[in-house]
Amino acid sequence: MNEPKLLSYELSDSIATITMDDGKANVMSGAMLSALSAAFERAEREAGVVVLTGKKGLFSAGYDTGMFKSTQAEIARVIRAGGELVYRILSFPKPVLIACSGHAIAQGAFILLAGDVRIGVSGDRKIGLNEVAIGLTIPFYGIEVARQRLTPAGFNHACVTGALYDPQTALAAGFFDQLVAPDELAAATAAEAKRLASLSVGAHAAVKLRVRQAALLAMRTGLDAEFPAPASE
């Protein structure tokens, strides 16, 4: 049986556009995480800039809540994969632009925060880290990427209260660098991707690692402590 298609990949003028669309809420299942990892691996080889987006009105609702009924080993495996993806995006050697097409919640918001430039859309959307509202403890990798990108007040409020923000409030908290109307997202994304493509790739990669060195070290330490890789890895 063929696996369902979870995302599309398009390369044009050295810009790789990865569009998530699982037909539902773009949940971060093991399959989606694997597909995203493969797409970023391909983009690292052949693209100058990566654009990550979702279908209209939705970026990602986070982990598949059904996954938390699995075995502890399976839960740990999927969450480690999610953390590795966030780490990879935050340290990716090419510019990563997140075109957040709608709701971005929990793991979806961690991926949003990992991008170099994050453009959101106005309207009736929910953005945030709602783990404590549903009885979950935010993994260390999520804490660190939020600490890296949110304002100090926004970081504390978002993590500790589990609030879901409207786009304007999310912008003020640091989830976004820019907010546009939904029908302006494509044009804003194209313009910013073109600007990012003009950067020196080597300088961009080196400076990114210097700027994010402490966050990346803390993420790696937390990932390995909370979700150790199987011995076979």
Written account of the structure:
- The chain is of the alpha/beta class and 233 residues long.
- The protein is built from nine helices and ten strands.
- The strands form two sheets. The protein has a six-stranded mixed beta sheet, with helices on both faces. The chain has a four-stranded mixed beta sheet with strand order 4-6-8-9.
- Helix 3 crosses helix 4.
- The longest helix is centred in the middle third of the chain and has 19 residues.
- It is globular.
- The two termini are 28 Å apart.
- The model has no long low-confidence stretch (mean pLDDT 96).
SSE blueprint and pairings:
Layout: E1 7-12, E2 15-20, H1 30-46, E3 49-54, E4 57-60, H2 72-90, E5 96-99, E6 102-105, H3 107-114, E7 117-121, E8 127-128, H4 140-149, H5 152-161, E9 164-165, H6 167-173, E10 178-180, H7 185-197, H8 201-211, H9 213-226
Parallel strand pairs: 2-3, 3-5, 4-6, 5-7, 6-8, 7-10
Antiparallel strand pairs: 1-2, 8-9
Series of secondary-structure elements, N-terminal to C-terminal = EEHEEHEEHEEHHEHEHHH
Low-confidence stretches: none
Q: Report the end-to-end length measured between terminal Cα atoms.
A: 28 Å
Can you list the strand order of the major beta sheet?
1-2-3-5-7-10
The CATH superfamily bears the name 2-enoyl-CoA Hydratase, Chain A, domain 1
- Helix % is 40-55%
Report the mean per-residue pLDDT as an integer. 96
How many distinct domains? 1
Number of strands: 10
Largest sheet: 6 strands, mixed
Shape: globular
Backbone structural class: alpha/beta
CATH class: Alpha Beta
Percentage of β-strand residues: 15-25%
Number of helices: 9
Computed Rg: 17 Å
User: Would you tell me which CATH topology applies?
Assistant: 2-enoyl-CoA Hydratase, Chain A, domain 1
User: Per CATH, which architecture?
Assistant: Alpha-Beta Complex
